Amino acid sequence: MGAVAQSSPTPVTSTPAPSATQSTAVKTDSPVVTASSSSTPDSAAPVEDSTQVNPVLRRIERARALAAAHQLQTAATDLENIRVSANDVALRNVTTLMLIGVYLEEGNYARAQTLLEESFAARKTQNDESIRTYFAMVGQTINGIRTHLSRYRTFGINPSDGNLPVEANTDLDRVRVLLERVVAQAKEISGDSGRSYEALALQEDVLGLRLSLAREGADREKWQGEYVAVREKLASSQVQVASIGRPAVLDAMTARIPNPFSPKPAEQTQNTTNTGSQPVTSTASNAASTEGPEPKLISSGSLNGKETKRVTPSYPAVAKTTGVAGTVRVFAIVDENGKVWVTNSEGPTLLRRAAEDAAKGWIFPPTMVSGKPVRVAGYLDFDFKL
User: Fold this and answer.
1) CA-CA distance, 325 to 319, in Å (whole number)?
2) Burial of 55 (0-12, 13-18, 19+ CB in 10 A)
3) What SS3 state is found at 16?
4) The pTM is what?
5) Which of 51, 301, 309, 372 could cross-link to 363 by cystine, CB 3.0-4.6 Å?
6) CA distance 52 to 61
7) Cβ atoms within 10 Å of 374's Cβ, excluding its own
């Protein structure tokens, strides 16, 4: 997934236990480790099994396994029961995060939205913890939707295709409604004190996703306009991301696209001569310092339609012979000169290489923000039809 899964918040239990046992037990993505009885003196009390000490965590682990086995309804039922009975806020948050993921996987968007609405309403207390919880919930929602859309492409289906069967269109319309609700929430949060930039960053992510599902005509024009407007607000903002601490959940969503321009380790190290102890900086580092700071990297959505030169991929013979068709999404970074650097792709395996090779030949006009060139991270969609 391109998407970056997030780890759920680590629940803390109030039951006394040896620190080593407790820290192992709450790591829900790791095996539970039980201390060996041979390490306990005969006169000491036996070490309790961590699953007995933390029965709720044991139930959460079972629900996680059920979800992984795609027994989604059973997993959801167990998690709902845990959520209702849990008094610990951290455990409730963990189960809610898992439930959002399960419901999105199941296609129960209404229940996923209800859980998100609860977190959104709680954030009005202006408590830092409630704000962080909301961003975690909305991050889980966006990641779940990205995973869902990726599955369409895996089966060779373009989610923005207007000629899909009615079942697929109904499913995607529900996804659109959920995304539009998140956009509305982000707009409301932008009015909260000190949350303007975080809300804009959230809008950018969600609007880019909604734009990727836009239909042709007025729908695309509407979401393209909103996306561009938010990008302009972000570009003109005087608050820098590093200074306000953009939520980690949003960083995780955009971190799936690596930056090929980051300095290589060899360029960051210093060489020491045999005759002296003074370090000598490499030529590459000196060149970088004289050329000034690297261009800023900004996140974008679809890059299709913005190019000055495009290359149509050739249809691989093997894929054509075996009847493989579908959409390949190529993730890339456009540098300050308009050149495309491919980072990764998703879609039918036999078609990816052809799509990536074609994307490398595309050229874009330089992107300027406040009069300075920037690099743009986004994606290109290639449809292969027999």
Assistant:
1) 7
2) exposed
3) coil
4) 0.53
5) 309
6) 13
7) 17
In a domain, residue 72? The reply is yes
Question: Is 233 inside any structural domain?
Answer: yes
CATH code (residue 352): 3.30.2420.10
Write down the pLDDT at residue 194.
65
C-alpha radius of gyration, the chain, whole number: 24
Q: For residue 368, list its beta bridge partners.
A: 373
Cα–Cα nearest to 328, from 358, 307, 298 = 358
Q: What is the mean pLDDT of each run of 10 residues along the chain (386 residues)?
A: 37 40 36 34 43 73 91 93 86 89 91 92 74 85 87 84 89 94 89 74 86 85 86 62 39 44 42 43 40 66 86 88 83 90 83 91 89 86 87
Residues 105 and 200 in one domain: yes
DSSP 43-70: TSPPPPPHHHH-HHHHHHHHHHHHHHTT
Instruction: Tell me the Ramachandran region of residue 371: left when phi exceeds 0, alpha when psi lies from -120 to 50, beta otherwise.
Output: left
Q: Side-chain half-sphere of 206: how many Cα atoms within 13 Å? A: 26
Reduced to 3 states (helix: H, G, I; strand: E, B; else coil), residue 140 is helix
